[in-house]
TrEMBL record:
This protein's UniProt keywords: Transferase
GO MF: glutathione transferase activity
Source organism of the structure: Linum tenue
Residue ranges annotated for the GST C-terminal domain, each copy included: 156-284
Location of region: Disordered: 48-67
Enzyme class name: transferase
Lineage of origin: Eukaryota, Viridiplantae, Streptophyta, Embryophyta, Tracheophyta
Pfam family, one: GST_N_3
Protein name: glutathione transferase
GO biological process assignments: glutathione metabolic process
InterPro entries documented for this protein: Glutathione-S-Trfase_C-like (IPR010987), Glutathione-S-Trfase_C_sf (IPR036282), Glutathione_S-Trfase (IPR040079), Glutathione_S-Trfase_N (IPR004045), GST_C (IPR004046), GST_C_Tau (IPR045074), Omega/Tau-like (IPR045073), Thioredoxin-like_sf (IPR036249)
Length: 287
């Protein structure tokens, strides 16, 4: 313990004397003052480093430092999931190399159960062995750690709060109403569909004349919302209507997002989604 204390004192002194003297005299002076030798400093730091390597504290290292180290990034995902698509878009926007693992949600992997024991849902991002769960949380995490490339959230606190508000609206209102449409039929389904379209119109009004929810550039709300566009075809065929006639601006916005390789690569073929929905409704005994 003495060695550790002495080494800490030595490191503090280096800092203090940095401005005071030449590098040589600084070292000699500090070693002497702190009763350490170059050898003991080296060995103590080496030991401390080894002891903490497997136990990183949450405060350790600034995010940008971590992003520049060798990274292991894994995404547990399922192709049809709009939540998974959010993570895929953010990873692609930021050009983050990662391993993509497709989960069978009918037979969840041990890794998924271990990494997301609370909800047991995908997506899960595993960054250097540590899990990050919940899609919007993942997008925010990626944006913070890899903040240098394609920032998604605004840095201004007020604009950031607004972006989070709308992303929450997408989750709570749009995605929720959209999901309920698939597990109902008849009149109930019709009224849920109207509710769903109502929420889309609210979003359309929020978009206004901007090209993206993020303003001139695609941002957090765009990444949160655009995945559901891959399900529009399924809604249209099932409900025999057109989104274009109800919310043309929103459809134009989605098409604009699709021009981004990150989005077109992350979203699956709409016809494949429709076939998946049909199967799902059959399995649930709705069709
Ligand atoms: N709020 C979660 C929702 C994730 C979610 O519902 N994922 C679905 C796939 S779309 C899932 O893993 N379902 C498996 C289950 O519920 O057992 C998020 O944003 O990540």
């Amino acid at each position: 313990m003495y060695e550790v204390d002495a080494t800490c004192r030595y490191l503090q002194h280096i800092d203090y004397f940095k401005r005071e003297s030449s590098p040589q005299s600084r070292c000699r002076y500090n070693y002497k003052l702190c009763e350490v030798t170059p050898n003991s400093v080296y060995h103590t730091l080496h030991r401390l480093n080894r002891a903490t390597r497997n136990k990183p504290s949450p405060k350790e290292g600034a995010p940008q430092q971590r992003a520049s180290m060798a990274e292991e990034v894994i995404l547990l995902d399922t192709w049809v999931s709009p939540f998974g698509m959010r993570a895929r878009i953010a990873l692609a926007e930021k050009g983050i190399k990662h391993e993509h693992r497709e989960e069978d949600l009918g037979n969840k992997s041990d890794t998924l159960l271990k990494m997301n024991p609370i909800h047991k849902t995908i997506p899960v991002l595993i960054h250097n062995g540590k899990p990050v769960c919940e899609s919007n949380n993942i997008v925010q995490y990626l944006d913070e750690v890899w903040h240098d490339k394609s920032p998604l959230l605004p840095s201004d606190p007020y604009l950031k709060a607004q972006a989070r508000f709308w992303a929450d609206f997408v989750d709570r209102k749009v995605f929720d109403a959209g999901r309920k449409v698939w597990v109902t039929k008849g009149e109930e389904q019709k009224s849920l569909m109207e509710e769903f379209i109502g929420h889309l119109k609210t979003l359309e009004a929020e978009l206004g004349d901007e090209p993206y929810f993020g303003g001139e550039k695609m941002g957090y709300v765009d990444v949160t919302m655009v995945p559901i566009y891959s399900w529009f075809h399924a809604y249209e065929v099932s409900g025999n209507f057109s989104f274009e006639s109800h919310c043309p601006k929103l459809v134009a916005w989605a098409e604009r997002c699709m021009q981004h390789h990150s989005v077109s690569k992350a979203l699956p073929d709409p016809e494949k989604v429709y076939q998946y929905v049909l199967q799902l409704r059959k399995r649930l005994g709705i069709e």
